[in-house]
Amino acid sequence: AGIAVLRMDDRGVGGSTGRLGRSTLEDLAGDANAAARLLRRRPEIDPARVGLLGQSQGGLVAILAAQGSDSVAFVVLLASPGVSGVELMVRQTEMLAAAAGDGPADIRRKAKSQEGIMKLVAAGADSAALHAELRKALRAEAMATGEGRLPADADLEARIRSELRTLRSPIYVSLVASDPRPALKELRTPVLALGGDLDQQVDPQQNLPEIRRALELAGNEDVTTHSFPGLNHLFQRAQTGGVEAYGRIEQTMDPAVLKKVREWIRARFGRPGVAR
After folding, report:
1. Distance between CA atoms of 13 and 9, rounded to whole angstroms?
2. How confident is the model at residue 276 (pLDDT cuts 50, 70, 90)?
3. Helix/strand/coil (H, E, C) string of the chain?
4. Closest Cα partner for 50 from 31, 26, 76, 30?
5. What pLDDT, on a 0 to 100 scale, did the predictor assign at position 148?
6. 121 near 176, Cβ under 8 Å?
7. How far is CA 193 from the centre of its chain?
8. What is the Cα–Cα distance from 144 to 263, expressed in whole angstroms?
9. Which residues make beta-bridge pairs with 225?
């Protein structure tokens, strides 16, 4: 389509150095800006028309990288959060529980438990506080599912340690503590935000309106949001949107999404008669 794209490995993958789990969203935003600077120096690239595209967590990275920037020409957000990490994780818990067939009472219980844990993570709680909250959550889960008792101590501690490694990692803490709305209010560039209505990780009904609201409150007049029917978090054509199906679906990304991104960019940055 005449649009140049730079893609790079995550930290610690392929030729990239560093460790992703020990990074923060701000670190990754620095990586994104470094990539944009690299593109602007290339002779075949128009430095005034370099934008950022991020998917899921990458959308938060793109927002942070573009925040207050005069050199980012546009931002494309794919299945990206528009609410705080706590709100996001609670809603994700509700959707996954509903998809698993849980009833309303179990969904509320799981959501409340997740909210308590996520608030501790966002506040930077220490391992002891998180350990206690996780133990309480596992006890409640055992009672609610009819097991009536906790797993053996060794098994319980192993589960808690595994959870703590994730909950205490800098990248996870950074995600849960995030709220993109203040940064969105500083974006003056055109923004395209897309979602799939079967997404069980980043609910488009929760996030797309918040992205639009934050941008429009700040006076951004070029905001486009759209939710595609029948697509999951990865924008694959899906039946349920379940996470477990991602690897079984052969489609990488529905062509309609690529078309939408391509046409949106070309409508704003293509020159008449010139393929860019």
Report:
1. 6
2. very low
3. CCCCCCCCCCCCCCCCCCCHHHCCHHHHHHHHHHHHHHHHCCCCCCHHHCCEEEECHHHHHHHHHHCCCCCCCCEEEECCCCCCHHHHHHHHHHHHHHHCCCCHHHHHHHHHHHHHHHHHHHCCCCHHHHHHHHHHHHHHHHHHCCCCCCCCHHHHHHHHHHHHHHHCCHHHHHHHCCCCHHHHCCCCCCEEEEEECCCCCCCHHHHHHHHHHHHHHCCCCCEEEEEECCECCCCCECCCCCHHHHHHCCCCCCHHHHHHHHHHHHHHHCECCECC
4. 76
5. 56
6. yes
7. 12
8. 50
9. 193
pLDDT tier for residue 29 given thresholds of 50, 70 and 90: very high
Entry pTM: 0.91
| 8 Å CB contact between 257 and 231 | yes
What share of the chain in percent tops pLDDT 90?
80
DSSP β-bridge partners for residue 55: 78
Residues 141-185: pLDDT tens digits? 777 766 556 666 677 788 889 999 999 999 999 999 999 999 999
Q: Determine how many CB atoms are found less than 10 A away from the CB of residue 44.
A: 6
Average pLDDT across the chain, whole number: 91
The owner of tokens 């794209």 is: 5
φ, ψ of residue 120 in degrees (nearest 5): -65, -45
Instruction: Give 176-208 pLDDT, tens digit per residue.
Output: 999 999 999 999 999 999 999 999 999 999 999
Neighbours of 61 (CB within 10 A): 23
